[in-house]
Design brief:
0% strand; 326 residues
Length: 326
Amino acid sequence: MYKIVASIIVSIAIALPAIASQQVVNEYLDKNDVKGAEIAFTSLTDLEKQSISGKILTGRLLLAKDETEDAFDFFEELSEQQATNVDVFYYWGMSAVEMAQKASIFSKLGYAESYLEAMGKVIELNPEHLDALEHLIGFHLGAPSIAGGDTDKAVEYAHRIKALDAESGYANLARIYQQTEKEDSANKMLDEGLKQFPQSSQLYFTRAQGLIEQEQWVDAHQNLAKAIKFSSTDDEKELALYQQGKTSTKSGLELEQGIKALEQVITQPNSRYFSWGQYRLAQLYLKNDQASQAKELLAKVDSSEDDDLKKKVKKLKKKVKRKLKS
């Protein structure tokens, strides 16, 4: 009996470092810190890397490094071996939708089909998978009907979310109605949601998005300020801060507020909006008669992997140059 107990203890002792090490890789990936994730991954043992959780990390690293086609092929093959693993199908779906965005028009439909197959399997295995349900809503709103887009499906998934997480459900229903130009229904969802969750960052953010579309700038800025104030996660706060700054570039209002918001964004480690945040902040510096600061900041923007950003930075540099000469 003693030998059996001792053996179990040894097995647990061996397993714990593996779990902890893999958890560190996951944490780096969740923070968008690819270099940190790669370094942590190399410290795993071969046994850890070859475990199913280790293989999922391998695929996630491919996705994080923008090696999307390799990630897609990797998870597709893994899904054939792991027919009941929710994470495998989830990340296969994520890689499929990334490929659909990058692929030629002739390949898009195939990747969209793979996405729906993968995410459908996720919610079959776990009907309460909120991330998958939210991604499916985004897909059905954004994809044309020929690729499987279906707004009725989006509404169905939003109601499923609402049954699991009422606050998020209200936000998703409002977002769907905003994008399908049903403003009365959108406002009804937001009003009902905010009665139940008066300090909901995501509901204020969703309301702000609708107001931005209508160019109701004052109300949009006010709702974004509340979204920032009530944010409960770093990601939630960073998104609201970035949107506050971006909205100031469009509205020409609340310039100081927008500048402070974007200055916070670009000082966050591994910010998802770092380069675009720098560009938007330079825009606001120029609007706020701080052309020298705009020039200095634009010189630091890395747009080497984003053609759209590269064009915008080039155009803004010319405006700043003219301003400094005037």
